[in-house]
Design a protein that fits this description.
globular, alpha/beta, eight-stranded mixed sheet
């Protein structure tokens, strides 16, 4: 477990029954759900406002959300229309009240994408374009980094998001590859506390310039166990490790839960660590 003054989190964990997942409503919570080879990220503000970024490859994300006490979403965001990012989104929209939905505006030809469109058209969810804007979730802000206006590669038209809570920040970039990461760099990317490894830790989704610009303390890689792509790539891991960041992986660690306070303190716990603690009677 990575800690920066962990005592508030320990207090919350101690108050929970074995097997329950802790919630500290006085802090930002980022939950990287273990959806296999895909992405699904929960952002919950201290005020209880919730955003979902991507919804995995058709797994039951709705049930995962309910297990974390999420009964409604202020916004659901699809970074791009590949099935490992939107596979569970239609079910989420049918199962939970969702106020706003955002995607990159780039259509796709798959059945998964068409089903999502039909679900949106039959719902009351308001659509937001992925323009350069700031979305408020109480004391947490989401800064939208619009993708390049043209291009045929869906990965390189992923929506970027900077999550800010006081001195803590996180950067989510979907499946961006080097081309789009350089585009984001040209627009200005600040130092970041946490980055989600783009494209599940692919070799073509990180560069020394990206690490030098973001200087992350934490890197979270969302990928499936023994996935056919070999993610995370060993070279990508070397890049992340070269910057001195702590690396967490959903294929190895299960869900990764970051609790962050506005003074910059944060703590990280994984479902694997919680399972080991329960087995040890701690």
């Amino acid at each position: 477990m990575l800690t920066r003054n962990l005592s508030p989190l320990l207090f919350v964990l101690a108050a929970c029954a074995p097997g329950e997942l802790a919630v500290d409503y006085g802090a930002l919570q980022l939950i990287f759900l273990d959806v296999g080879q895909g992405d699904a990220i929960v952002i919950r503000s201290p005020e209880g406002k919730v955003a979902l970024v991507d919804a995995g490859p058709g797994v039951d994300v709705s049930e995962m959300l309910r297990r974390h006490g999420v009964a409604a979403l202020d916004i659901a965001i699809a970074t791009h229309p590949h099935a490992d990012h939107i596979g569970g989104m239609a079910d989420v929209l049918r199962s939970l009240p969702v106020r706003f939905y955002m995607d990159n505006g780039v259509p796709h030809t798959t059945q998964t994408y068409r089903e999502l469109l039909r679900t949106l058209e039959g719902s009351d969810v308001a659509y937001l374009e992925a323009t350069a804007r700031t979305i408020d979730l109480g004391s947490v802000t989401l800064r939208v980094l619009p993708p390049p206006p043209t291009g045929e590669n869906h990965n390189n038209r992923s929506i970027g998001l900077i999550v800010e809570h006081g001195a803590f920040s996180a950067l989510l970039t979907g499946d961006s590859e080097v081309e789009e990461l350089n585009y984001f760099l040209s627009s200005g990317v600040p130092d970041i506390t946490l980055i989600k490894a783009a494209h599940h830790g692919a070799r073509d989704a990180v560069t020394p310039a990206w690490i030098a610009a973001t200087q992350p303390e934490i890197v979270v890689i969302s990928c499936g166990r023994a996935n056919e792509y070999g993610y995370p790539h060993p070279w990508a891991l070397r890049y992340y490790e070269s910057g001195g960041a702590e690396i967490y992986r959903t294929d190895r660690d299960g869900e990764v839960i970051i609790t962050a306070w506005d003074d910059g303190r944060y703590s990280v716990i994984t479902t694997r660590e919680r399972a080991l603690a329960i087995e040890d009677g701690r």
